[in-house]
TrEMBL record:
Domain of life: Bacteria
InterPro entries: AraC-bd, Homeodomain-like_sf, HTH-like, HTH_AraC, HTH_AraC-typ_CS, RmlC-like_jellyroll
Alphabetical list of Gene3D superfamilies matching this protein: Homeodomain-like, Jelly Rolls
Key words, A-Z: DNA-binding, Transcription, Transcription regulation
Pfam families xrefs: AraC_binding (PF02311), HTH_18 (PF12833)
Entry protein name: AraC family transcriptional regulator
Domain HTH araC/xylS-type intervals: 193-291
């Protein structure tokens, strides 16, 4: 299975964003693959079957969806079919959290900034289909992003981030207009999912209960109580679980030594990481690598 990183694309100035058009037919069908980045995909025209993890679903013109780092996906294009898509590729921390806080966007990103970072067990939809007017507006923004990345005039990085922020807000607004058709979580469960999404994005950074409490405007005891109700675990245990799961993937897919893996998933002390790994998995990181490669 192919694993792609943003280094695979010649993005300028080490700016962690890329956008491109792709056309797929039966002959050019891409391999099932994973990424080290987030991928937003908009279907310009055509139809295909999208393979996602261990499921599949049909995609058509006007569909838009996102793929997390580490998630397997690909397409099946039947004979006589084609599909044309626009791909936006970016790192999970491309949208700085402090900018989102300053813009008071915490409650606006339910679908297209929070949900894509949730694991598959707690996602609540796979894609969004845009109506004609919404699709036109979305495509206009994607065209502007493509133009900025092509011309790379002064300040293009800031404009790209601003336009992506606008795109996420609009997509979440479109999602909220149609969410009555879907089974939507309660406010407290959605809060837990938002926190889960944050942890999934920032697992390699310092994360504490007081910090999350302040960030999401909820008391520490109350947040832990919600986590115990909806996730059957504490906030601290969830953070450790996410980090160890990320570490498992790095142990299998890279040759990094254990201390480097520990650092990459947010642990400064490799010995502490090793103890937590044994507690969660039953054996050491080295033994896990040996058995699962």
């Amino acid at each position: 299975m192919l694993v792609k990183s943003l280094a695979h694309y010649k993005h300028p100035d080490n700016f962690p964003f890329w956008i491109q058009r792709n056309r797929h037919d039966q002959r050019s069908m891409p391999l099932l693959h994973t990424h080290e980045f987030v991928e937003l995909i908009y279907v310009e025209c055509g139809q295909a079957t999208h393979l996602f993890q261990d499921t599949s679903y049909e995609i058509n013109k006007g569909d838009i969806f996102m793929i997390n780092p580490g998630e397997k996906h690909g397409y099946i294009v039947n004979e006589g079919q084609t599909i044309e898509v626009i791909n936006c590729l970016f790192h999970p921390d491309f949208m700085a959290p402090y900018v989102l806080r300053e813009l008071r966007l915490g409650d606006s990103f339910d679908f297209f900034y929070v949900q894509p970072f949730l694991n598959r067990e707690i996602r609540f939809n796979h894609k969004l289909n845009l109506g004609a007017a919404d699709a036109d507006k979305t495509q206009d923004i994607l065209e502007e992003l493509h133009q900025e990345m092509t011309q790379r005039d002064s300040g293009y990085q800031a404009l790209v981030q601003l336009r992506m922020t606008e795109l996420f807000i609009l997509l979440s607004r479109y999602y909220n207009k149609g969410k009555h058709k879907l089974q939507i979580p309660s406010p407290n469960e959605l809060l837990v999912r938002r926190v889960c999404g944050y942890v999934e994005r920032h697992y390699n950074q310092k994360i504490t209960l007081p910090m999350l409490s302040k960030l999401f405007y909820v008391g520490e005891r109350q947040l832990n109580r919600h986590f115990n109700r909806y996730r059957d675990t504490s906030v601290y245990e969830f953070v450790q679980f996410v980090r160890i799961e990320k570490a498992k993937r790095l142990l299998i897919e890279t040759d990094d030594i254990v201390s480097v893996v520990a650092h990459r998933v947010g642990y400064e002390d490799a010995a502490s990481f090793g103890r937590l790994f044994v507690r969660q998995c039953g054996y050491s990181p080295g033994k896990y690598r040996e058995q699962n490669r």
